[in-house]
Design goal:
Elements lengths: L1 H26 L8 H12 L11 H10 L5 H23 L3 H8 L2 H7 L5 H19 L5 H16 L5 H14 L6 H26 L3 H5 L7 H15 L13 H23 L4 H19 L11 H23 L4 H17 L4 H14 L7 E4 L10 H7 L5 E4 L10 E2 L1 H5 L11
Parallel strand pairs: 1-2, 1-3
């Protein structure tokens, strides 16, 4: 009994620490944990029901729109979504008795904490991925069957696709798992659900994407975008940082520290494989690992003809979640409560990193708000000028502006800078000072 109470206290501590550090993670970041994609999400939410882009589904922008109905702006709405996503994971796991210990440990890893603090759609998709895994488990153990099983699984795949397009890989994973387990009672259900999800994707392309952007395929699909030599290196770096439980960000400039970061991730992957082989996986565990691996493989190959950012912990989160859950379950079976130490160390690493790289978002928000107010630009559509598309890493000011006025677009036309509503880094920094940190 005492052991159970002690473990419950550990879990409560980890949940509270994760929540608090998530808040600190975006408040102690000079731009509130946003990036160029965050600008698009918040702008899409701001201008809805106008559809201003189809690069991403509407799920995440609409979730932000929902919370703006209660008086929040798009930026604070995104943080509410992230925090509620984490709390939902814990509450759902507790209510359904589904990987509770594991989701507390996984959610507290610095990489997942960073996702919950980000203004990005991964924060929203993780709870839906978790429910999807639960529904699949119910079908596998025969608690959910027949048409109801097919309907629930199909709806989950469709919901996932409406949040992030890479959910297509989860559809593929479900279909392939059904094909491999065709003789099992759930084989056909998985196959039909996977096919239904893919059919929805085709209809979505024809009825939504093509309607609002008939140049989408021509713009984003291009064979041979990157050489294999580059993609393999980036894939190795992305996978090893994804499965590094302590540090998920490597130094872009290189250095010896990166070897340690990649090395820890690689050793953890080797240990993971060893444990999975030595300790036989159940049907549910096999599915969780399998669908995650399919997501990784598909994410790699899609890069040959679809322009995406180099794979990293954030892009891989919807697929790594299921693998982490099985890994921590097996680790707990071997080491017991000592497994919580991994998450405690990860949170400690996150606290140190967050403090050392701190910037004051609230102060920067006040500065940029004052600037926009003085220029009468706080409620008008804005553009931010960059010389070319390779300068997307120089959008720090635009990202900060978007947290106050989300109706910001990027322009590469020099003539636009003659307009008052087009801002540049120089124009803004002439009048305000930004509290910057040394890490991005």
């Amino acid at each position: 009994m005492r052991r159970r109470v002690f473990e419950r206290r550990i879990q409560i501590f980890l949940v509270a620490a994760t929540f608090i550090l998530t808040v600190a993670r975006f408040l102690l970041n000079e731009k509130g944990r946003t990036n160029p994609d965050s600008i698009r999400f918040m702008r899409s939410s701001k201008v809805f029901p106008i559809i201003d882009n189809t690069v991403t589904p509407l799920g995440y922008p609409l979730s932000l729109k929902f919370f703006t109905l209660f008086g929040f702006d798009e930026f604070w709405a995104s943080k509410i979504v992230g925090l509620l996503a984490y709390l939902f994971l814990v509450c759902f796991a507790w209510k359904k008795k589904f990987y509770l210990k594991e989701i507390i440990m996984v959610g507290g890893l610095f990489s997942f904490l960073s996702i919950f603090s980000y203004t990005m759609s991964e924060a929203l998709i993780l709870p839906f991925v978790f429910v999807f895994l639960y529904v699949a488990r119910q079908i596998i153990i025969d608690e959910l069957r027949g048409f109801k099983a097919y309907l629930y699984l199909s709806l989950m795949l469709i919901l996932l696709y409406n949040i992030r397009y890479p959910a297509l890989f989860l559809m593929g994973g479900v279909f392939l798992n059904g094909a491999l387990r065709y003789r099992k009672h759930y084989g056909k259900t998985f196959i039909y659900a996977g096919l239904t999800g893919m059919a929805f994707m085709v209809l979505y392309q024809l009825l939504f994407i093509n309607y609002f952007n008939d140049q989408y395929i021509d713009t984003f699909l291009e064979i041979g975008l990157h050489p294999t030599s580059q993609l393999l290196v980036e894939f190795f770096q992305g996978v090893t940082t994804t499965f590094n439980p302590f540090i998920h960000i490597a130094n872009p400039a290189g250095g010896l520290l990166n070897y340690a970061i990649y090395g820890i991730g690689l050793l953890n992957i080797i240990l993971m494989i060893f444990i999975f082989i030595k300790n036989k996986l159940s049907e549910t565990e096999f599915f969780l690992v399998f669908v995650g691996m399919v997501g990784f493989v598909c994410s790699y190959f899609i890069q040959y003809f679809y322009s995406v950012n180099p794979l990293d912990y954030r892009l891989m989160a919807p697929f790594s979640l299921s693998i982490w859950l099985v890994y921590f379950k097996k680790m707990y079976q071997i080491f017991g409560k000592l497994t919580y130490v991994i998450t405690i160390l990860s949170l400690t690493t996150g606290l140190v990193f967050t403090w050392l790289s701190k910037g004051n978002y609230l102060e920067n928000r006040r500065e940029i708000s004052q600037f926009l107010k003085e220029e009468n630009l706080q409620n008008v559509p804005l553009k931010f000028y960059l010389e070319n598309e390779t300068e997307l890493d120089k959008t720090q000011i635009a990202e900060l502006i978007s947290t106050v006025n989300p109706n910001v677009g990027i322009t590469f036309k020099a003539k636009d800078t003659l307009k008052k509503t087009t801002l540049t880094q120089y124009k803004v920094l002439q009048k305000i000072k930004i509290d910057e940190n040394q890490f991005q």
